[in-house]
Specification:
single chain; 391 residues; alpha/beta; Aspartate Aminotransferase, domain 1; Aspartate Aminotransferase, domain 2; 2 domains; 7-stranded mixed sheet; 3-stranded mixed sheet; 14 helices; 16% strand; globular; binds pyridoxal-5'-phosphate; biotin biosynthesis; acyltransferase; 8-amino-7-oxononanoate synthase activity
Length: 391
Amino acid sequence: MKGFEYLQKELNEMQEEGTFRTLIPLESAQGSKVTIKGKEVIQLSSNNYLGLTSHPKMKEAAEKANEEYGVGTGSVRTIAGTLKMHEDFEEKLAKFKHTEAALVFQSGFTTNQGVLSSILGKEDVVISDELNHASIIDGIRLTKADRKIYKHVDMESLESALKESGDYRTRLIVTDGVFSMDGNIAPLPEIVELAEKYDALIMVDDAHASGVLGDNGRGTVNHFNLDGRVHIQVGTLSKAIGVLGGYVASTKTLRDYLIHKGRPFLFSTSHPPAVTAANDAAIDVLLEEPELIEKLWDNTKFFKDGLNALGFDTGISETPVTPVMVGDDALTHKFSDELFEEGVFAQGIVFPTVQRGKGRVRTIVTAEHSKEELQEALDAFEKVGKKLGII
Ligand SMILES: *Cc1c(COP(=O)(O)O)cnc(C)c1O
């Protein structure tokens, strides 16, 4: 069809650069091993940190909800699509997060869009870490607030932004709790101190920390014993929680406000019963099976130590998100492709997801991996890393 020539031209350029990608369909359930192109490979690219995508209790809860309430809700939350189970889950989540209230959005992405776009106006300023997730950046784009970007986890840079922000109604500092491409943890204790000194609000996006850090996976705020000192915690139910959705855990005031003003919440249909029931059961799993999180961290240490001993550069990671730095975009994809040939699925991440020239193969081990699988993966990394001159 005519009309898309300019798009095709750009795609052709990507093809020449070696950065054009197609989607890679799994032919099995998510797990420590998955089937891709008919081949069983070790999965190192999912966000399924605790293996909850196929937890029996969660599957059972989803099936029961499906049976009892059907597959869809037929409306947005604010008209006729709020089931009692939606509100019960939000109460349970708020209690879990040690906050007054919680509200669930369709995804982590829409949570950031909904929160940032609704609570900030032209009298306000948002102060954002330069490596924050795309959904935070897009949320900020939707506000009329002034914006300041501080250097990645650089507290001097944050403080100078705060010093210039005295005249605004609200100063909102926004940061990822765990940075999704580098696996480092935001220095929340310092951020809280600065926020208290300059009377700013803090919003933390715990997408990669929920289910991973803090008591029973309560997140970075709890990890640093900062309960009650961070104004807004957002996160996803789609990573370690294993299902789908985003949440904001904060005050009752913010919850009530978002019900009136959070546009994705208002204008997009609510989660199907099976999704909510599975999310609800996930909180029970986090409370009842803390050994999953222990296993996740044990595997993380084993795999990270193994990569470092082989001479790979894993950057500044402190969490299960472990990048293996490569640099060149095309070489990054080549590394990933060769790993696949050796039975390991670890996706290359390049521009625009990370800066140009900072290509990496990003790995995430899960609680489901056995030591044998991780050793097999390390052997593959060694072989391919040597072949391509990365180590
Ligand atoms: C993955 C991620 C999101 C998006 O969450 P979804 O539920 O997948 O939409 C938001 N913020 C951060 C920091 C993320 O890593």
